[in-house]
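Supplementary Data S3. Sequence and C-alpha cells for construct A.
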Amino acid sequence: MCRLGWRCVHPTEGVPPVPRALSAAIAALTLTTAVTTVTGAPGQAAPTGWGRPHVSAATPTPGSPGLGDSYFPDYGNGGYDVDHYDIRLRYEPATDRLSGTTTILATATKDLSRFNLDFALAVESVRVNGWAAGFARAGDHELVVTPARPLAKGQQLTVVVKYAGVPSETTVYGYTGWTRTADGALAVNEPESAWWWYPSNDHPKDKATWDISVSVPTGLEVVSNGVQPRDPLPEAGNRTRWSWRSVKPGATYQAFLAIGQYDIVTDTAPNGQPVVNAYSTTLGERLPAARASIERTAEIVDWESGVFGPYPFEAQGGVAGPVDGIGFALETQTRPVYGPGFWRRGANPYVVVHENAHQWFGDSVSVAAWRNIWLNEGFASYAEWLWSEEQDEGTAQELFDFTYDSYPADSEFWQVLPGDPGAGRVFDDAVYDRGAMALHQIRLAVGDPAFFRILRTWTAQRQYGNGTIEQFQALAERISGRDLDAVFTTWLFTAGRPELGATARTSAAPAQPASWTKIRSAHDLLAR
C-alpha cells in the first residue's frame, strides 16, 4: 500500500484522507460474545434422527469472534475456514444503495453451535446449508450466525447472506471504508474493506477465491479482481451485469470494486496472461501520466518476476481511480488501484513497481498477523530501490545513504519499530523507509546471491499462504549460513538511529539519487 502521507503519494484536492489503522486502544478492545440485537429467527428444527450432521460427543461451542491478532483482536473469526466467496450485487449510484447476496463456501474446523462473520451492512436473512439461521449483531462489525442445526468439525458449509444498505453512510469506528464518487464508488481499503460490501472472515490468515458479479445502470463499468468469465451481460431496466473471477486465493481486503465510468484497455503480458487496465474518465489532464505509468505494468511485472520468482496470479493490470476517489494506492490482487494524486506531477512508474511487488509480498505471501506488516511494506519499498538500480537512476546503496541522512538522529521516525510498529502506526513512514533500509542491511550481510535466493525461496515456499518476520529471519539464516539476529534486532526492533561504520557508506555527504524525487515527490505537497 502507498498511503496518504509524504512517503509515496501526491494528494488530490478535495479527496478525504484515507482512514488510518485503528488506534491501539481501539485495536485492543475485546469483543463480547453476547448477542446484542436479535434480527433473525433460527428457523424450524431438523426432524429427529434424520438429516442431522454427525457431531462428536463434545458439546458444540461458539466459534471465536476474532482470531486474536495482537493489533486487531476482533478481526477475523474462529471455527471455520472459507474456501470461496460468491458475491452477487446490485448497485444504485444515484443513492449509493447496495443490495446483494453473498454465498460463502467454508469448512467447519470444530464442532460449532454458532459462528461470526465480519460485516457492517443491514442483513435481511441468513441460511446455513439451506436452513434459515438466526443472526444478531455483536460489537461493532460482528454478525453472529446461529445455525438451525449444530455443525460438525470437517463439515462443509454453504452460508447465504442477503443484505442491503448505503455503505457510505455506514460507519464502524467512526469511518467507512467505502468511497462514494460522482459517478459510482470505490471499495478499496486496508486493513479492512470487505465490511461494507460483503460478509467475510476478515483476516489475511483465511484466504479464499472470489466470484464477483455486480449489476449497474448501463453506461457504467465495474472493475474488480482476476478475469472476466463472461462478457458484460445486459439486464432488464437498462442495466448491465459485470462479472469477475479470481482463481487464486487471496486475503479479504485484497478484493475490490471500482464502479463508474472507465475506459478499459486490454492486452496480453509477456507471460501470456491477460492485462486489464482501467482509467477513470474524470482524470482529464492527468490521464496521459496515468497511462504512461500503468501501461508499463506488464513490463514491470516481467522484471519483478525475474527478481522475486514467477508471478503468482492469473491476470495483471491496474486501475486509475477518479479525481474524487481515494488518496492512496492499494495492492488489490491482480489489479492495483491508484488514487489520482500519483499523476499530478507526471508519470510515476515507481508506485506501479511498489504495488505490483506486493503481488508477491503481501498478496501471495500475506502477513500471519498485522504486526508483521514490514513483510509487506518494507519489501515493496525496497523493490522501488531495486527498480532504481535497474533504470540507472540510483543504486540501492545510494538510496540507503540518502534516506538515512534524511532523518536526523533525534527524529521521531527512528522511534517507530518497523518489526512491531503498533496498531496505530501500521502504515508509518518507518515501516516503509526504515523497512527498506533493513532489507538493504540484510542484503549487505549475506551478499547478493544469497539475498535474492532468500527472496525467491520465501515467495515460492509460502505462496498463497502467510508468514512472520521470525520465519523470514530463520529462512535467511538457513540459506546464508549467517547469524542475522543483530541485523534484524537493530533495524527492526530497536528504537533510535543505528550507528553506521565508516565502511557502510558510499560517501560522508551522499548525493541525491535521480530516483529520489520520483519516489518521494509528494513531500512538499503534503507538508502544507
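Construct B, processed identically:
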Amino acid sequence: MADDLYDPPALAPGTLRVLPLGGLGEIGRNMTVYEYEGKLLIVDCGVLFPEEHQPGVDLILPDFAPIRERLNDIVGVVLTHGHEDHIGAVPYLLRERRDIPLMGSRLTLALVEAKLKEHKIAPQTREVRADQIDRFGPFELEFVAVNHSIPDALAVAIRTPAGLVLHTGDFKMDQLPLDGRITDLRAFARLGEEGVDLFLVDSTNADVPGFTPLERDIGPVIENVISRAKKRVIVASFSSHVHRVQQVLDAAVANERHVAFVGRSMVRNMGIAADLGYLEVPPGVIVDLKTAVNMPDDRVVFMSTGSQGEPMAVLARMSNQDHQIEIGEGDTVILASSLIPGNENAVYRVINGLTKLGANVVHKGNAKVHTSGHAAAGELLYCYNIIKPRNVLPVHGEARHLRAAADLAMETGVEPARAIIGENGIVVDLKDGVAQVTGQLDIGFVYVDGSTVGEITDADLKDRRILAEEGFISIFIAIDVQTGKIIVGPEIQARGFAEDDSVFDGVRPQIVKALTEAAEGGTRDQHGYQQVVRRVVGRWVNTQHRRRPMIIPVVIEA
C-alpha cells in the first residue's frame, strides 16, 4: 500500500470528508471520522484484539495521528453500541482530550462509563435513543434502532448540506429478536426516499449466503445441552452478549441450576445490564463464585469470558489448569460465540486442552449454540434495495467481506465506480451526490503493551517472534582491540536453541580466527569486532542448524 499513499487536497467548501481510521480490512478497532466545515464527528472508537503474530500485545488501537492536531475540532463521538471493538479505545482518545462529548444509547453509555471509571476519567455524555434527531456542530444526526447481539444498538444518519450518510454500525435483521427490538426498516426506507448519498454498511457476513439464523433458536439448544449435562456446565461468551447470558439464565432455571458469573468484565457488564433492566435475573439464581465452587456439580452453571481463546481469559486458564474452577471428566463446556477471524488457532488450542481434561466441549461447529450478530448476504440485499444508496463504502470487515458487500451493492444497481472498497486511511469526499476517493493516508497499528501505548513497534514484535521461534544466543568476549587477541571467551549462552552448550564448540575456533583476521585487516573498535562475531555465528548457526536466532555479541576492551 505504501506506493499508493497520497494526501488529499484541502477540503472544498460544501464537501463532506469521510476518513475510516479502523475497521477496514480487519474485524475490530472500528472508527470513522467525518469532517465538514472545519468540524469533526467521530463514529465509534474501538479496539482490535491481537493475533498470535503479535506476542505480548494487549490491545491494538486506531491510529489517532491524522486527528491528533485537531482534537479541539471534534464536536462529539457517536457510539453505535457497547461492544469492545466499538468502544474499547474511547479511554485512550479521552486521554488526549477529556471533554469530548460521547453520544450513545443508555446501555452503551453505561458500559463505556464503567470502562472509563477504571481509567479514572469522568466523561461528558449525552444519551440518545432511536428516532431521536440531534445536532452537533454542522452535523444533524438521526438515530435508528438496529438489531445486533447486544441490546440498544443504533445506526446513525448524518445530514449535512453535502449529503445524507447512513452508517449502520453492526446490525442484522432478526425478525423475532429476544427483546422485540427489530432493525427499523421503515426508517431505512424513509431515509432511502429522502436519498442516501453514502451508505457505510456492516460487511462482516457479506460473504455468507441467505439470512442469519434467529437468536431464539439458540435458547432451546443451550437448554437441551444443560439438561443432559451430568456435572458442571461452563458457558463461555462475550462479556457483553446480554441476550446469550439471558438464555443461559433461563436454561439454568429450567434445570434447577444456579449461575455464577466468572471474569471481571462479565461480572461488571451483567451487573450493569441487570441494573438497567436489559437482563432479567430470576430471584435467587445468581450466586458468587466462592459459593458456586462448593455447590454440587449438577446444580451450577459458570458463565465466563474467554470464548476467543484469549490467553489470560478465564476459559484458557481453565484449560491450562490455572484457575480455581478445575475442569474434570464429565464437565460440559459450551462456547457460545462465533470465531473472530485470526483467533481460530487459539480457540482450538483451548478446546483441545479442555477435551484432554475430560470435558465435553460444545461449540458452533458441533451444535447450534450461537448465531452471528451481523447481517448475511440476503439481509444486505434487502437493505440495498430498500435504501437505494447512490454510493456505498463497506466497513467492518476483512478484504473478502468488503469485496462481497461491494459486489452485492453492484448487483442491486449501484454503479461499480460508486461501490468503494478501501483500506484504513482512505479519504472519501462527498459532494452533490458523488463520493470520490481523494487520498490514502498511512495508517499504522498502535499497540497497547502493559502500561505503554504506542511505544511498541512492528520491529519490536519481529524481535519477539524471533525470540519465540528461533531462540537467542549471546557471545561474551574480552579482547585486546589493538591485536584482536582474545583475553576472555568466547563465552556463549543460548536460550531456546540448544540445551547442551557443547554444541558451540565447533564455532568458537571460527570466532577466534575471524577476530584475528579482522585485527590484521585494521579493525580497532569494539563495534567492528561485534559485527565480525555476529556474522560468523549467524553464518554457522544457519548452515549447521538451519536456524536464525537473535544474536547478541558483547565485546569489551580488556
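The longest helix spans residues 526-545. The CA atoms of residues 212 and 376 lie 6 Å apart.
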